[in-house]
Write a structure and sequence with these properties.
single chain, alpha/beta, Rossmann fold, 10 helices
């Protein structure tokens, strides 16, 4: 089981990227589980035709422990196993603690054993990298962390903070930094800025996604690009990125076993 965590500033296109990677990996015949770790609970929507689903924290609030694994999970495009951690009632709790509670509940209910995914992808909001938001980096969760950024200053700032957190946790046996995914916004000197970031954090760009109206058109349909426009150039970009992310995660696992 390969475990991947994808972080990035809110609004950077992280969930769209993750969902298209999941769809592309499922096309290869892999069983994929995508776990949304954002209080908005919208990580897996494009895999499910924009259908809303009950979050793990909703179930905990409403039923305590009186629910099964099947209540926490929905199957999306390509058989991707979809889970949304959810968040606390606004103003009533800590979103980070909510992620911890949700991931612990998944483990308690035996999600990984029952579904036996080949790949698990945690989609994590990266504006704050503390408490529960760092949990997918921990030993036993992700093997590798990938950061989605553009060349916008705030996105780069968030990416640098995430990378610093990953590096800070390495001494505890946490996940490795697998690389940077550049999701272009066509700002001035974009690639130069992101390459400079990579130099600062000792990483590299493992994949670049061009800005494309195809992504918006697919989102209007409530679908991933891979599902809605499978023959498009953008779908090919996501498939290529999925291969690179998988290879980088496998390399991180190999390094850790040496």
């Amino acid at each position: 089981m390969i475990k991947i965590a994808v972080y990035g500033k809110g609004g950077i296109g992280k969930s769209t990227t993750v969902s298209n990677i999941a769809a592309a990996l499922s096309e290869k015949g892999m069983k994929v589980m995508q776990i949304g770790c954002d209080p908005k609970a919208d990580s897996t929507m494009l895999l499910r035709g924009a259908e809303k689903m009950c979050t793990v924290l909703d179930l905990v609030r409403e039923r305590k422990n009186d629910f099964g694994l099947e209540d926490m999970v929905k199957t999306g495009y390509g058989g991707v196993i979809c889970v949304e951690a959810g968040g606390p009632t606004p103003g009533m709790g800590c979103a980070g603690r909510g992620i911890i509670a949700a991931l612990e509940k998944l483990a308690e209910k035996g999600a990984y054993e029952v579904y036996s995914p080949d790949v698990v992808i945690y989609d994590v909001l990266g504006d704050v990298v503390c408490g529960g938001f760092s949990m997918p980096m921990r030993s036993g969760y992700a093997d590798a962390v990938f950061i989605v950024t553009s060349g916008e200053n705030m996105a780069i700032h968030a990416a640098a903070n995430i990378a610093m957190a990953v590096q800070g946790f390495r001494g505890r046996g946490y996940a490795r930094l697998g690389g940077i995914i550049l999701n272009k916004r066509n700002v001035k000197n974009e690639e130069e800025k992101v390459n400079e970031l990579c130099g600062d954090i000792g990483s590299s760009i493992i994949g670049t996604l061009p800005r494309s109206d195809t992504v918006l058109e697919a989102e209007e349909l409530g679908k991933t690009v891979v599902e809605a426009m499978p023959q498009s150039d953008m779908a090919s970009c996501y498939r290529e990125l999925a291969e690179k992310v998988l290879a980088a995660a496998e390399a991180a696992i190999s390094e850790d076993t040496k």
